[in-house]
Amino acid sequence: MARFFVESVAPTDQFLVLEGENAAHAKVLRLKNGEAVTVCDGKGTDYACVVSDVSNGRISLVVQHMNPSESEPKIAATVYMGFSKADKFEHVIQKATELGASRIVAFPCRRCVARPDEKSLAKKLERWQKIAASAAEQSGRGRIPEVAALPSFEAMLKEAAAAELPVLFYENERARTFQSAIQAGPFQSAALITGPEGGFEAGEVAQAEALGLNICTLGSRILRCETAPLCALSALMYAAGEF
After folding, report:
1. Residue 8 pLDDT more than 80?
2. Which of 52, 68, 84 delimits the end of a domain?
3. What is the distance between the alpha carbons of residues 243 and 231, in angstroms, rounded to a whole number?
């Protein structure tokens, strides 16, 4: 069934209209009068609708009923990833959205090669949010994850420390496993922190540990920077009973 996200829907709305990119997408799908579609407010509520009229640049819908989205995980997981080269972060945004991340955040650290300036970062954030929206629509999410960027490593640590399960993954950690950290739960919120291509410096890891973050290993193999956050998120969702 076709699924569309709209910016705002009131619980009392009986009629909805798809315009702009949504209408263009509906045209590609060749929707016709009487077909069923799902409209989501992006905040966790789905609206079951029926197409009532199709015209140029405008699709009219009749709302049948509304329900909480069944596809949202019970745990709110934020993925934090150091700025990376090329389109690696875009890959993580798409896949982390499919896996159930509630938020995806980029941040600078000492070994980051990519350091976008303010102007280019604004353009990237706009593109990144569109990637998340598209992935949420395709995967049947009830929410579109927020994609953000923080100004510093310290700002990231301060924000991540507020989660019930804050974890920084470090390739040189040998004793503390992610499995052991998860088993201390259950948790309602988690912060999963991974580095850029060069990983974290020891001093950064010490900063995280001083703030009470769990320093964990993701196993004996060195994972690429675009693999590590998806591996961690998948493990968390599995442990939370989402798979």
Report:
1. no
2. 68
3. 14
